[in-house]
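We were asked to recover a plausible sequence for a given structure. The inputs and outputs are reproduced exactly as logged, with field labels preserved.

PROBLEM: sequence recovery
POSITIONS: 315
GIVEN STRUCTURE:
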C-alpha cells in the first residue's frame, strides 16, 4: 500500500527547516505592502493581527463547496455532519477538531497563490523569497455531545528550546465567526511577556502546553475572507463550537525559501505531484486517496510555482 504521508517529519513545511529568525525583532527594510505601521508594531508586540478580506468571496465559496464534498457532508443536512474521523492523529489535540485531510486541491492553491496573502507574509518576514506551507482546512460542526473534542490550548513549537524556533501561522476564515462558534483562541499578553514569564516557570515545564495563570485567553472574531496571522510563540488553540453553525477555515503560512536544500525542495514537489500529506503527528492523510484519484492536479500561476519551489526566486 502507498504511504499516506511522506516519511520525513512534517516534510515540506516550516518546521522542517528550523527557521531561527526572531520575528519579534525584525527591523523593516522593505516598504510595507499590506500592513500599516501600527499593525506591524502590534504584530511584533502581541503576536497576532487580523488582515481583512485577503481573498474574494468567490474563492471562499469555491473552497467551502469543495470541503463539503470532500468530507461527504451536506451543508443543508445536519444529520450528515458527524461522520467518524477516518484516521487518528498522533497529535491527540487534533482528534475530533474537524481537520480536512486535503492538501493539494485547486481551491486551496488558489488562496495560497493569492497576491494579497503573499504580500502580507512579505511584510511579516521582510523578504520576498518565500515558500508556502503544505497544509489543509477545517470544517468544524457544532459540538452537540456527538464529539469528544473539548478544545485545546498549546504551542506548536517547543518553547523550552534555546534558541527558540520562530515560525508564522495563519488561518483564513470562510465564515463570519461568533463567540459561540468557538474557533481560534490565544493569549497575546503571555506572548508579550514571554521572555520574562519563562524566567518564573519551573525548569521541567511542558514546552507545548502552557499554564497561563491569570493571563487572559481571548477569542478574536473574524469576517468571511479575513486572515488571522500569528507567531508560533503565541499560545493558541481551538475553542469548542457551541453554536448551531459550522465553522470553516483554511490554514496558510509562508516561510523563507530554502532553495539550497535540495532534499526539502524535492520532497515538496513530490508531495504536490503525488498528492500526499506531509508526515508528522499532526497529519493523518486520507485513506480514500480522493485527492490523487478524484481531482486533477492544481494549476499554479508564476507566484504559486515559486511558493511551492517548482520555480526559483533567483530567476
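RECOVERED SEQUENCE:
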Amino acid at each position: 500500500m502507498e504511504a499516506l504521508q511522506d516519511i520525513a517529519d512534517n516534510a515540506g513545511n516550516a518546521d522542517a527547516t528550523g527557521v531561527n529568525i526572531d520575528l519579534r525583532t525584525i527591523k523593516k527594510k522593505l516598504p510595507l505592502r499590506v500592513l500599516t505601521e501600527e499593525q506591524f508594531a502590534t504584530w511584533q508586540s502581541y503576536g497576532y493581527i487580523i488582515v481583512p478580506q485577503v481573498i474574494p468571496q468567490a474563492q471562499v465559496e469555491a473552497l467551502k463547496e469543495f470541503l463539503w464534498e470532500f468530507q461527504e457532508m451536506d451543508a443543508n443536512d445536519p444529520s450528515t455532519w458527524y461522520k467518524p474521523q477516518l484516521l487518528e492523529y498522533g497529535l491527540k489535540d487534533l482528534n475530533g477538531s474537524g481537520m480536512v485531510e486535503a492538501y493539494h486541491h485547486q481551491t486551496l492553491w488558489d488562496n495560497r497563490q493569492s497576491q494579497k496573502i503573499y504580500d502580507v507574509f512579505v511584510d511579516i518576514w521582510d523578504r520576498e523569497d518565500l515558500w508556502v506551507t503544505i497544509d489543509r482546512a477545517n470544517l468544524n460542526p457544532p459540538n452537540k455531545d456527538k464529539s469528544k473534542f473539548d478544545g485545546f490550548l498549546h504551542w506548536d513549537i517547543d518553547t523550552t528550546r534555546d534558541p527558540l524556533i520562530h515560525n508564522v501561522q495563519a488561518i483564513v476564515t470562510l465564515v463570519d465567526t461568533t463567540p459561540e462558534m468557538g474557533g481560534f483562541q490565544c493569549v497575546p499578553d503571555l506572548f508579550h511577556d514571554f521572555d520574562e514569564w519563562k524566567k518564573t516557570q519551573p525548569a521541567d515545564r511542558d514546552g507545548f502546553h502552557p499554564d497561563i495563570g491569570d493571563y487572559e485567553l481571548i477569542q478574536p472574531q473574524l469576517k468571511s475572507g479575513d486572515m488571522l496571522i500569528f507567531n508560533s510563540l503565541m499560545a493558541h488553540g481551538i475553542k469548542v463550537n457551541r453554536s448551531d453553525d459550522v465553522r470553516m477555515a483554511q490554514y496558510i503560512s509562508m516561510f523563507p525559501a530554502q532553495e539550497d536544500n535540495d532534499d526539502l525542495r524535492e520532497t515538496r514537489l513530490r508531495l504536490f505531484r503525488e498528492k500526499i500529506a506531509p508526515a508528522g503527528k499532526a497529519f493523518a492523510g486520507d485513506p480514500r486517496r480522493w485527492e490523487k484519484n478524484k481531482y486533477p492536479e492544481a494549476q499554479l500561476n508564476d507566484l504559486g510555482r515559486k511558493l511551492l519551489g517548482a520555480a526559483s526566486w533567483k530567476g
